[in-house]
Write a sequence for this structure.
């Protein structure tokens, strides 16, 4: 076979190349992991409470909604789109779950909340993919309208959840960890598989890299764009369910600024806002990092207003590192 | 003409009365093009004559305003890139159309990735193996099919684009400026490739500014001028000067 003769023997240069390749491809993940490790050590040393099982198990539960939506958001951002409506969808589904569960079946409430999230995502996706509107504008409109809808159906009040079927979704424990943590683990694993090992994942990268190329290769780009925004809608619905179940209450105000936290997590994880490059694992680590910062600062008893300030600074530092170091390490040509 | 010996009544490609308007500009004003089996047609014309647009229509990437496209007698007008590919039409675009953030094998297999039926898992191993094999067959030297296209030179990218078009047994191969970024040796390889595929019965349409290349491989020149068919001639009937004169509309 001609391969044998034509392929050069793997030499030292090739191996070095492979190692460089690994570093450059996973640079985003490696850098955010380093940041997380530093923060982890810092908070462990500076506070007594941080490095305790109880605290870590709690952090793992708190970050779950962000992790779940960040996984879906990674698909969206990798195509070069954005979804600003996830926080509002979270609020609406949390409120709807509580209201329906109170007046009827808990199972129906759960299904309805998820379908609601999926449906809003589908509308976002259809307007973006087939209506040829920018996802930024479409989901900005949804951010406003969906939050309004949530306030409308609740009159601004929160509704308690007492269902024995729903509460374990937020507070149940299995093998030491809370249900939300397990849900997040499953979502990350599934997201990683789909992103890296299926045609859909490949096309998500291709849409963000060169959508026209993918179209010419015979793939319907609009279906990919529709699917990713539907995914974030569904994920936000799931996050709404988790949040409401954990707090034992559905509030139309939950999830305010949640979209920015999710986008921050995704960008921290090395996903390019311009599309074409994304990492599911990076997004998950990014979300955990944000959770660790807010938890650690609270334990340090610094003023709670320092949490967003610190998160903002970490974001800028991470982006600068990515932008400046990344181009140098990978040496990409255009 | 090389295809003359196996004459079959329907031509492989038949484009009739193709029109296309972009805003105020009518790029194509009723163009006809026929390509026989195994025939190499050199499509020439000045910049803006409509060559690339005409070929994008054949590849399904642009929909004509009016006119008819048939491949082996079957209508294919405006049915999209997927249908065109399924009908055996492959095109190397002038702007390459590769995904920078996808690796070499991923670009070769874009749109027709191999995956396991049950788990939907991409068969990365097989795609990389086949990609390496295909590149070697075409004498394209790329040491690692896991490299991202973004890290490669213009010539390498062009080679990948050509490899993608010829690998999947096309019936019609459209090459829009395939040699623009290539060194002399690689140009010669590309021309040899065109001879090889056309001798296997593949129809080729070649657009290039290197007119001397056309004299080496083309069976027939079709000259477009400002969106209409201007001249048609064989290499025996003309020379470089005659071809240039025809391109200028005289």
């Amino acid at each position: 076979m001609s391969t044998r003769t034509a392929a050069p023997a793997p030499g030292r240069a090739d191996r070095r190349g492979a190692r460089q390749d690994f570093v450059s491809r996973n640079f985003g993940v490696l850098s955010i992991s380093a940041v997380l490790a530093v923060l982890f050590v810092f908070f462990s040393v500076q506070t007594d409470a941080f490095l305790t099982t109880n605290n870590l198990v709690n952090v793992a539960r708190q970050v779950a909604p962000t992790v779940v939506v960040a996984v879906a958001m990674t698909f969206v951002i990798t195509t070069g789109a954005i979804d600003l409506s996830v926080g509002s969808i979270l609020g609406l589904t949390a409120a709807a779950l509580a209201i329906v569960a109170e007046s009827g079946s808990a199972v129906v409430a759960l299904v309805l909340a998820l379908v609601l999230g999926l449906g809003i995502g589908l509308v976002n996706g259809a307007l973006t993919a087939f209506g040829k509107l920018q996802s930024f504008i479409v989901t900005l409109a949804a951010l406003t309208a969906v939050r309004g809808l949530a306030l409308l159906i609740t009159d601004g009040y929160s509704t308690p959840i007492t269902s024995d079927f729903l509460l374990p979704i937020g507070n149940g424990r299995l093998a030491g960890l809370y249900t939300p943590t397990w849900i997040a683990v499953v979502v990350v694993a599934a997201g990683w598989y789909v992103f890296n090992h299926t045609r859909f994942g490949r096309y998500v990268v291709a849409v963000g890299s060169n959508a026209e190329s993918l179209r010419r290769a015979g793939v319907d780009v609009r279906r990919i764009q529709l699917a990713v925004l539907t995914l974030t809608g569904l994920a936000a619905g799931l996050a709404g369910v988790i949040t409401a179940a954990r707090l034992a209450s559905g509030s139309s105000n939950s999830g305010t600024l949640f979209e920015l936290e999710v986008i921050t997590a995704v960008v921290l994880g090395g996903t390019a806002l311009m599309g074409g490059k994304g990492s599911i694992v990076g997004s998950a680590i990014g979300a955990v990092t944000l959770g660790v910062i807010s938890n650690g600062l609270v334990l340090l008893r610094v003023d709670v207003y320092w949490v967003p300030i610190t998160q903002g600074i970490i974001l800028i530092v991470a982006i600068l590192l990515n932008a400046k170091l990344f181009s140098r390490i990978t040496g990409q040509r255009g | 003409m090389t295809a003359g010996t196996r004459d079959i009544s329907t031509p492989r490609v038949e484009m009739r009365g193709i029109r296309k308007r972009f805003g105020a500009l009518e790029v194509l004003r009723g163009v006809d093009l026929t390509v026989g089996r195994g025939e190499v047609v050199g499509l020439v014309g000045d910049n803006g004559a409509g060559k690339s647009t005409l070929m994008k229509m054949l590849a399904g990437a642009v929909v004509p305003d009016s006119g008819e496209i048939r491949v082996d007698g079957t209508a294919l007008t405006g049915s999209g890139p997927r249908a065109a590919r399924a009908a055996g039409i492959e095109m190397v675009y002038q702007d390459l159309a590769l995904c920078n953030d996808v690796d070499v094998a991923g670009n070769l297999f874009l749109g027709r990735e191999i995956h396991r039926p049950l788990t939907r898992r991409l068969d990365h191993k097989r795609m990389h193996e086949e990609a390496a094999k295909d590149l070697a067959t075409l004498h394209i030297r790329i040491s690692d099919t896991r490299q991202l296209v973004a890290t490669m030179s213009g010539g390498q990218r062009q080679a990948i684009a050509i490899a993608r078009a010829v690998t999947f047994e096309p019936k019609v191969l459209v090459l829009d400026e395939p040699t623009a970024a290539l060194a002399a040796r690689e140009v010669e390889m590309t021309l040899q490739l065109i001879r090889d595929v056309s001798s296997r019965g593949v129809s080729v349409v070649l657009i290039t500014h290197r007119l001397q290349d056309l004299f080496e491989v083309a069976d027939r020149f079709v000259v477009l001028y400002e969106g209409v068919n201007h001249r048609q001639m064989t290499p025996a009937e003309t020379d470089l000067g005659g071809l240039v004169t025809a391109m200028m509309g005289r």
Chain B touches chain A at residues 59-61, 80-86, 91, 93, 97-102, 106, 110-113, 115, 120-122, 124, 129, 132-133, 135-137, 139, 141, 143-144, 146-148, 150-153 (CB under 8 Å). The two ends of chain B are 26 Å apart (CA to CA). Chain B has eight helices and ten strands.
